[in-house]
Amino acid sequence: MKLITKIDKVDLFSIFLTFNGSEQRVLNLNDIINQFSPDSFVYKKLSDQNYFTSVKLDSYGTLIWNNEIDFCPDTLYNYSKKI
Asked: Is this structure's pTM higher than 0.85?
């Protein structure tokens, strides 16, 4: 199982991450955000840059936004690209 060990940097809808095994990857969440309906709660929240940059790493090795939105770390790994 892939787990995130560190958020290295948050940029415009991209998050630079370190996964277990010290693998560094970049995740562009625009790909995920665009899969949701424009009316969905998740899309509206994550498309707000201020909200997006409030991302934190939780104790389970994944990203979380204000205890409201999170994603499976394996999914985030699959959507990310090696740096």
From this structure: yes
Q: Give me the residue spans of the domains in the chain.
A: 4-82
Percent of the chain exceeding pLDDT 90 equals 67
Query: Which residue is associated with the tokens 């790909």?
Result: 31
pLDDT for 33 beyond 90:
no
Domain 4-82: what homologous superfamily?
Answer: NE0471-like N-terminal domain (3.30.2020.10)
82, 68, 43, 79: CA torsion to nearest 10: 20
Task: Indicate if the pLDDT at residue 37 is higher than 70.
Answer: no
d(CA 66, CA 6) in angstroms, rounded, equals 17
